[in-house]
Amino acid sequence: MKALDELTFDNRFARLGDAFSTHVLPEPLDEPRLVVASPAAMALLDLDPAVAETPVFAELFGGHKLWAEAEPRAMVYSGHQFGGYTPQLGDGRGLLLGEVYNAAGEHWDLHLKGAGQTPYSRMGDGRAVLRSSIREFLASEALHALGIPSSRALCVIGSSTPVWREKQERGAMVLRLANSHIRFGHFEYFYYTKKPEQQAELAEHVLKLHYPECREQPEPYLAMFREIVERNAEMIAKWQAYGFCHGVMNTDNMSILGITFDFGPFAFLDDFDAHFICNHSDHDGRYSFSNQVPIGQWNLSALAQALTPFISVDALKETLGLYLPLYQAHYLDLMRRRLGLTTAEDDDQKLVERLLKLMQNSGVDYTLFFRRLGDEPAALAVTRLRDDFVDRAGFDAWAELYTARIARDGDDTEAQRRARMHAVNPLYILRNYLAQNAITAAESGDYSEVRRLHEVLSKPFEEQAGMGQYAQRPPDWGKHLEISCSS
Ligand code: AMP
Ligand code: MG
After folding, report:
1. Within this chain, do residues 163 and 190 fall inside the same structural domain, yes or no?
2. Does the CB atom of residue 111 touch ligand 1 within 6 A?
3. End of a domain among 147, 181, 215?
4. Surrounding residues of ion ligand 2, Cβ less than 5 A
5. Residue 125, helix vs strand vs coil
6. Of all protein residues, whose CA lies closest to atom 6 belonging to ligand 1?
7. Span 127-149, mean pLDDT?
8. Tens-place pLDDT, residues 223-252
9. Nearest Cα residue to 128 out of 159, 86, 83
10. Mean pLDDT of 368-392
11. How many Å lie between the centroid of ligand 1 and the Cα of residue 74?
């Protein structure tokens, strides 16, 4: 295991030069202090988890110190925001500090979010507040623990620096890790500014570093696009299966690696609601829960447009056509597993849809329903769960189909089926109200709650002694928290 000064850098993106990013130094936070660190994320850098408690850790990730080998850069990109094209965006408050490679040979981008103004800050102050930094930290690590591809978070550093939002808050930084910070919007930027040479350089960079296996294919760029389509279809299927709502699926927030990226007003569903809008500023529901599926394809078609210099329009269209069937296959596969099924039958899709409709009509808790379904033998579980449904007759009819389906499924024992179900149905999920409790405590200087919540969510499928309060439906005040984009 390594100490902090033993990290090894290889800054491949910085080497692309000034057309792609600008050198900017982080602006330090006042009185930086550790709020929370993720031992699992530290392991990705081979870091000894004990170093998180040392003063130099808060100084490094609070913008006071830099490794000699770091090359902090603000990246330029653009993107479609809520469907309209914004010609220039970029890292307005985050910096790519450098790329660290670990003993396994993986490269990890170190991205410091909340590091101050950059040439891309537009009217913004370049800062992030404690509230939004905690939310990003908890979400990235919780998604990863659920098996959903995501950027990771090493730590949150708090401070006494005042930052103005609707009211005065405190500045914070979150250190984000990802194998790449390249977004769909990077390709759009060089396409729409008509810089073909740089665009070719970017495409070659992504192909070489992130999709090397596609280089063996007859049409490497097409193979790469296909892989991006597949990864997005799978990621969004997982979001849907676990009730995750991203909230700001602008193309500048979509990663070319198909990982969940850039967390703002995201939410996990409490009650199942296909029409749920987690972003208070999303008046038309463009990014509502169920709309995330077609928006995934919309975003991929925006990327496809930017790839037309490399791939024929016909091939792009054909590849885009794979998105929905791939999405559906992944989604159904996951939902079958959540229901405890190991085999496939033609009517499974209908079984899932019928259940979701019943849940929607009765406002049934999405996470707890599946967990409880695997708590007991199927026939017993459904009799207990029926009380949650207003339409009892409707639920009974569904339950009859379900128990018959389970009986036909396979020949493992009830106990084996229940163990399989618990391994895919989390007991703990990052509910908005749980995040809010942790934030309220942290804002008054008590970081124990955010640390405990992070720990509970790092093992979401495992029942943890004394943690029953994290596996509850929200109290009334926590049901409809309004989360805005202001972060
Ligand atoms: P987001 O909605 O967080 O994805 O941000 C959209 C764009 O606004 C990105 O280019 C961000 O870097 C920029 N941005 C967001 N908040 C700030 C801020 N406080 N200061 C400067 N730029 C910001
Ligand atoms: Mg963003």
Report:
1. no
2. no
3. 181
4. 253, 262
5. coil
6. 89
7. 98
8. 999 999 999 999 999 999 999 999 999 999
9. 159
10. 97
11. 12
